[in-house]
Amino acid sequence: MKKLWLAAAIGSTLLASSAFAQSAPDNSKIVVAHRGASAYLPEHTLPAKAMAYAMRPDFIEQDVVMTKDDKLVVLHDHYLDRVTNVAEVFPDRARKDGRYYAIDFTLDEIKQLSVTEGFNIKDGKQVQGFPERYPMWTSDFKVPTFEEEIEMIQGMNKTLGYDIGIYPEIKAPWFHRHEGKDISKAVLKVLKNYGYTDKASKVFLQTFDFNELKRIHDELMPAMSMDVKLVQLMAYTDWNETMVYDSKGQAQPYSYDWMFAKGGMEKVAKYADGIGPWKPMVVSDESTKGNIKLTGLVNAAHAQGMQVHPYTFRADTGRIPAYANDFNDMLDIFYNTANVDGVFTDFPDRAVNFLHNKK
Ligand code: G3P
Ligand code: CA
């Protein structure tokens, strides 16, 4: 509830702050396949990415984490236990908190694991996160490397003649750096090796970590003669999405509050080409059918020349907000009423069809 209250407060602040420009910097709306076609096949597997590709989104997303031997793999969590059988294959390798960290395993070890549809443990049993989705532990899926996925997308760009981009997210750079790993530098090196070097490249590089975004913009990219498009993901402070280590080495939540206040978008725009907010940061959950309340965030970002790509659009039971009639209505509210430039969705086929039919 705190999040909803904050969203409403943020909206008032932004709306009251100034007269923002009304048009997007780029009128062509995009679809980002969130973790691939993750509504239909296990997230971040190569089959889910190939299926997403066939649906012809503009971009396919990769969440990227690092292994013990400094390889980059595509996984949403920096843990292995939500989507693999790591607890069965390596039962003694959990940390004290009970989690299996990707950074504690070599790529060779991770390649021994099977990937499944995501699950949580409840009363000692695996419970599928999205029960209507792909059945757990069927067929055989693996964790791909970042390079394997890029090669597959670029390979299909060649064979099919499309120009589908990549949208990698550097996961928890604050954690990786604390563990002695410079994941951002490694991600940039791979991007450069595969030809993603400048603003014209079909890539958006995203992270929740503002300090790291600044470092990428001010230090890493200039040192590597790179200048790709950057996206600042937005979270609420109490999600503990980004942490900072204090002088005693204790991790404390990074405060995102300034991003939502007057002048926040101006500061972000010094480093980023776009923002990736959570949906309620754009359309207030206090909205009702016929009374959509915009927070003002889109106009604030557009006024600074940034694109806005909110996450995550899902059509599963219970995932359509009360203010929308159905999935298409939700897309209409965001693309047309809120004027966002793109959406992250687990259902890329449906967003592509929506935009196509609108044209
Ligand atoms: O990166 C955009 C969106 O994917 C952020 O949420 O948690 O799915 O990475 P998450
Ligand atoms: Ca992501």
UniProtKB/TrEMBL annotation:
Domain GP-PDE: 29-355
Keyword match Ribosomal protein: no
E.C. no: 3.1.4.46
Signal peptide residue numbers: 1-21
Entry's Gene Ontology molecular function annotations: glycerophosphodiester phosphodiesterase activity
Gene3D superfamilies documented for this protein: Phosphatidylinositol (PI) phosphodiesterase
GO BP annotations, alphabetical order: glycerol metabolic process; lipid metabolic process
InterPro entries on file: GP_PDE_dom, PLC-like_Pdiesterase_TIM-brl
Catalytic activity: a sn-glycero-3-phosphodiester + H2O = an alcohol + sn-glycerol 3-phosphate + H(+)
Key words of the record: Glycerol metabolism, Hydrolase, Signal
GO cellular component: periplasmic space
Keyword Translocase: no
CDD domains: GDPD_EcGlpQ_like
Protein family membership: Belongs to the glycerophosphoryl diester phosphodiesterase family.
Annotated protein name in UniProt: glycerophosphodiester phosphodiesterase
Organism: Photobacterium marinum
